[in-house]
Amino acid sequence: MSPHPAYTRNDPAERVVPLVLDSPHSGTEYPPDFGPVLPLEQLRQAEDSYVDELFATAPSHGATLIAARFPRAYIDPNRSILDIDTSLLDAPWPGPAQAGRKTELGIGLIWRVMDTGEAIYARKLSVEEVKRRITQYHQPYQKAVKDALDAAHKHFGAVYHVNCHSMPALSSRISEEGPGKPRADFVLGDRDGTTCSAEFTALVAATLRGLGYDVKVNDPYKGVELVRAFSDPLSNRHSLQVEVNRRLYMHEKTRERAAGFAQLHEHIDRLVRVVAEYAAQQGSHACAHGHDHGHGHDHGHDHQHHGHDHGDDHDHDHGHDHAHHHDHGHPHKH
Ligand SMILES: [Zn+2]
Description:
This protein is an alpha/beta fold. The chain contains 7 helices and 7 strands; from the N terminus they run ββααβααββαβαβα. The protein is 26% helix and 12% strand. α5 packs antiparallel against α7. The longest helix has 30 residues.
């Protein structure tokens, strides 16, 4: 079977655990009908470069990894289809539209501008071409993620989803916190504790901190559509957004890998292993109780809310109990 033009999906060869990862913004295949005014080099600054590669060993730990093949500058699979910028179109949009904060910033479903402020198009887009982007790229991608989550949940009675991104080292001119602010090594987003259990956020945060990284939760990125759409912690469906700081692994201007790439790759592999073990325990637990997930572990509530309301897309925090034997001090402060 040839791969779908919108995404790749890699499944584990042997042991399977209820864990699905997805990388919606690392795609590099620019469709021929894009028609931007900006040069490719500039558009590529919007990519979450190499994120699919950084998480590529996930299937060896029993997880499924889905990655977009198309670039986010073309259409953003981490947006609701309602979040459409009708000012980009040459005719009225025939469906429902409910532009949100992202569209206001110019980075909704179809981006109007780069985060440096340059307009991506010197033309209007036709309704037909936008519909095509939705039906051929956006919807198949979201469906691939949903199908993987549904299948795991059906089988194990629980599913854990890690939505993987990378972020610029500094905030940009359209960032809610203002330009030029340095970001943490990792930012976890659970939309203020609504998309996964507090325990899961804490697990991921503690694991990363144990590896020497500084981690923030819901600040400034809380997570957007992909962690919102399919999560339901009370039904044991847990989604967490993870943002990796690009300075840890690449030169942002040239997009070349930096010296830290291999070490980060190894640390992410350890993180995924820890998360996979956790997911396996939760899943078997749920199964052992005959799919009665109504009790026991208190998923879902009781997160400390961290209050920052930046309304941006990334965040989270989990922290628990890993005997990390690898304690390399703080290998990673750049
Ligand atoms: Zn991203």
